[in-house]
Amino acid sequence: MMGMAASQGYRERLKALGKCVCDGARLMVGQGDYGAYVAHIAKTHPDQAPMTEREFFRNRENARFGVGNGSGFRCC
Amino acid sequence: MSAIAKHGPWALVGALGAAALAIVATSRGESINALWVVVAAICVYLISYRYYSLFIADKVMRLEPGRATPAHRLNDGLDYVPTNKTVLFGHHFAAIAGAGPLVGPVLAAQMGYLPGMLWILAGVVIAGAVQDFMILFISMRRDGRSLGELIRAELGVIPGVIALFGTFMIMIILLAVLAMVVVKALAESPWGTFTVAATIPIALLMGLYARFVRPGKVGEVSIIGFILLMAAIVYGGQIAADPYWGPAFTFTGTQLTWMLIGYGFVAAILPVWLLLAPRDYLSTFLKIGTIVGLAIGIVFVAPQMQMPAVTKFVDGTGPVWAGSLFPFLFITIACGAVSGFHSLISSGTTPKLVDNEVDTRFIGYGGMLMESFVAIMALVAASVIDPGVYFTMNSPGALLGTTPESAAAAVTKLGFPIAPEVIAETAKDVGETSIIARTGGAPTLAVGMAHIISSAIGGKAMMAFWYHFAILFEALFILTAVDAGTRAGRFMLQDLLGLVSPRFKDTTAWVPSVLATAVCVGAWGFFLYQGVTDPLGGIYTLWPLFGISNQMLAAVALTLATVVIFKMKRERYAFVTIIPTVWLCICTLTAGWQKIFSPDPKIGFLSHADRFSAAIAEGKVLAPAKSMDDMHKIVFNDRIDAGLAVLFVGLVVAIAVFGIMACVKAYRADRWTALEADPKLAPAE
After folding, report:
1. How many domains does chain B have?
2. Which residue in B272, B477, B488 is closest to A73 by CB distance?
3. pTM for the full model?
4. What does the domain layout of chain A look like in residue ranges?
5. If DSSP states are collapsed to H, E and C, what string results for B539-565?
6. Origin, by domain of life (chain A) (predicted)?
7. Shortest alpha-carbon distance between residue A26 and chain B (Å)
8. Considering the domain boundaries, does residue B283 fall inside one?
9. What range does the domain containing B9 cover?
10. B45 found inside a domain
11. ipTM over 0.90 threshold
12. Crossing angle of helices B100-108/B442-456, nearest 10°?
């Protein structure tokens, strides 16, 4: 039984690591966490429908290369 | 916990680092293993992170783990989102690491690896990482505002406008220099040109796929793009060898310049999802992957350093760039030691995503240490190749001639004996027709990387593949930077012009947008063209200007940080930012002064112009010019460059004066005068 619990913890940790890597890779190109966004809207603006995943993707894409202040500018 | 248990392991790290540094610094004559350089660097990073960054966090900033960050107070699920610190570290690092830390150290290697290494390590600990960390902290405490806004708020409106204008000019020079690195790497190289050109249709395909077929599947589309990219590198070898397509993809530097200018203009107007965003995926992931691969390669292969620790060129007579160790080494290596551009990133998206104030130490200070490590690896890559090959690749064509025989004779005369066969053989190994005068740093780095990686994977047969992989990887993210930079520059310009005529502020209106884009592209295109057609090879002239401008931006950012420390009434800790500010001001002002007024025509723009205009008056043509037209061009370029140097010097002096005035005022005030956002104003839900 203990072995099973340990392997489960191991698998869970691996899953968390995978999510961390994926989230990290996505954020590197300006794509934030859609799940976090939906959760945030559900919590703070329950009356509003959140953007769809596709809309969210486009919104982030525009924000990265969009308006001013050097946003989206990668360094030398 | 007892002091021994707490500090003991760190003392061991310190001792190991000191030993490694001693080995690196005292070896003369015999070559050392590159691992000593890596070990010394890592130990310095660990110690400085453990102690100095903690000191800054506790004493200067007094970070509060319980204080609500903008990500919590202003959480909108989009721009402001509390983010896991490791994920955010990756985001921040991917944004700050680019071509700078790869090119600068390669150029600096002409003085040997030791001066560059010491500056990279000392610079990052005392200046670079401090700047990134401080600006991240300052921006985070002010709702993630940008550097321009922060300067306007804390120093005043005029310094704010000066800084905005300076940032714009620096951006122009940066884009020109980066674009020139690409042009220099691709000129007369059909293999390289084909693979880089292939990224455009690949990116378009990816863009359409991510837009219409499978929206948002970044990983999937990146894998498709990556496979196509590798195919392009493999196939590029055949293209280059093809009797028709080989010459069709062979361009001179001037032709590539015009293509790049046209491309830059179109790319900056196209919708972002079509070209820019998908190529951004490729360049970002390739960049991170290659950096990790290079690190593993260096540790695994453990190559010997071939370059001497110190060469005779510390006196300023080197062929790669002009000027003596002080001040020019300190501006040649900007990124990796201290880079002003990071202050734009640290006041960009990162501060809006910080989950907990204490995370900024890892992200700001730690992220810069990581970039510094990239610079160390670039230095290693440039130092493990035969110094003869290094100088063959990086000296100007005017010195080397065009044949392996003439180049070998010239480089041997410099004091680095090399046989013509070695030059021809190296070119053949990497699949190029010639490696002579391939300036700009990128080809040298590519040879070094190919040398290291092919020792681990594939051997000599794979060397040409790895060389072109390295060229592609650099060209890819430089082009992404050129696109994104042109866009950012356009917005900045519209902001500036908006001060004069409000009509220009509208970034969605067609006419101002096209106009501002054209001005931007025209400005960097001018310097690019000037650099590429410069008979001395533009790196020789333009890289120092870039270094000066980048370090000046760092001085401006650190001045802001100093002012904020004074305003927080913590002036007894202000030495943390004053020391690097003063050092950067000394370096950049001395370098700027010498670039303008030095009587040595190799260094001073004006004396160089005088020498050439005197010759024009006598009707003579001086080498490396080939005609009277060339002569006039050189004089004109020199005067423009001198004007630019004057501008940069004026800018930093003005900001320093405003900074000192603000510090004095804050010192005389009897209370806290910094303008932090109230953490309780919009409390976390």
Report:
1. 1
2. B488
3. 0.94
4. 1-29, 31-66
5. HHHHHHHHHHHHHHHHHHHHHHHHHHH
6. Bacteria
7. 7
8. yes
9. 3-188+251-668
10. yes
11. no
12. 100
